[in-house]
Amino acid sequence: MDNNEADGMPIHIEVADIPSTSGIREIEQSLEAESLEDHGSENPDKERPTRGPISKLDATLKGLMGEANLRYARGDIETAKRMCFEVIRQCPEATEPYFTLSQIYENVNRKKYKGYLLLAAHLEPSNTGLVNRLAEVSLQDNNIEGAIRWYSRGIKYYPRNIEFHLKRLELLKQRDVELAGYSRMVLMAKTTLANNLAPSDHELMLSLVMEIAKERFKQKEYFRAIEVLKIPMRKIPNKVTKDVINMLLELLLICERYLECLDIFTQYCGFEFDISITDDNKIVMNAYKIPDNLEIDLKTHFIIFLVKLTTENLYSPLIDKMVIEGDVELFGDLYLDIADALLAKKHYTEALKLLIPLVKSKRFSQAAVWLKYGECLAGCKLDDMAIEAYYTVMTMAPTHIEVLYPLGKLLIEQGKKEEAMLVLNKDLTGNVLDVAVLLEKLKLLEQIEDWEGYWKSVDLLLSRYVYSLRRRPTKCCDRMFTNNFYHQPF
């Protein structure tokens, strides 16, 4: 703490309140609050009015302050300082004398320079010029967190100051490269920026919301991704792109928010619907009118929407048309999306319409697709064909353990126990242990009364999934596997 006196008046300068590296959690909390603010009621075409700083000095003190600045400009530093201290004595809550004193000490005493700037910013927290200068001071001191906090303070008072948003975002990205844990703060800062962009910045807004939504999607934060994608819907509805609409529909379908899907299809895609809502708020689709020349991505989301509503009579013709007119080599990933939705509803016959061309294609004839194909065939009670499909999976991907359980189960149902045992034993050769496969093997061993193999498999299951058995092989465990114990069922 420094003690300066002018005409007997002490001025105390304390710089410890300048943001430091200890405020990381506070930064994150501030960004979290900003990103969750409701901007829905704001008019995007009307900028928030900004006002210049309102002086607290009367006419006489304004004149004295002007004279102090003039003396400082002419190099009469001591007189300028005394005049500033006099203004402070008469009006200690005024910002101007502290700011002038900071200028006086800028190249003389850095500690006093920062201290007077901090006093000025404390008295007038909405002064963006002071905030910007303090952020720059923090950067000069290599205090990046401090600069981020100062820019956050400026954004709090002037959220439409895009320069502050961009500077803060750049610093957060820099810290994200240097240290872990900043990626979430980068996303929150981007969300706040997107919320405060003017409609004229629609290209930047659309780019930002897509970046954020994709990252949220990867992290399975679907609700946050939806809220971000709604920003352009609210602020620039006439500029919304198909990419935004497609991703929003995908997320809404994942979260089963079907009424919102209807709104998107109606407002942005040109659909017409005849629907009714049941007493338990379920949607009943009676009829629909699909627009001409609809893009295949939107058509895919609409089919999935109908599948989730369990309206087989409505989506089946659309699937037939897609299979006849579509190119599986180009749009196979969309076929898979629809097939996954059908499999989730156990609509195996319809899913087969899509999976058959997929397994015959060059690009999509892969183990994962053959696995879905086998599941479909099994669901349609075509067990022999399903077994053949599962063996194809094992040939294409020998380490693919997900195929072992359904294949072993089908073989057991057909009475091929020895063949099933060979399949189920393959899981034991690797480090990955599929519990469902091992449990199916236990059932089979019990049926054929192979108690020695049964208890060895139990031992394997317990050793992998019971912590105490992994830690210490106790005497009771040793006793459990005696010859007499093998002859008793589990």
UniProtKB/TrEMBL annotation:
Organism: Acanthoscelides obtectus
One of the GO BP terms on file: transcription by RNA polymerase III
Entry's Gene Ontology cellular component terms: transcription factor TFIIIC complex
Top-level taxon in the UniProt lineage: Eukaryota
Protein name listed in UniProt: General transcription factor 3C polypeptide 3
Bias kind Basic and acidic residues: ranges: 36-50
Region Disordered: start-end pairs: 1-54
PANTHER family (UniProt xref): GENERAL TRANSCRIPTION FACTOR 3C POLYPEPTIDE 3, TRANSCRIPTION INITIATION FACTOR IIIC TFIIIC , POLYPEPTIDE 3-RELATED
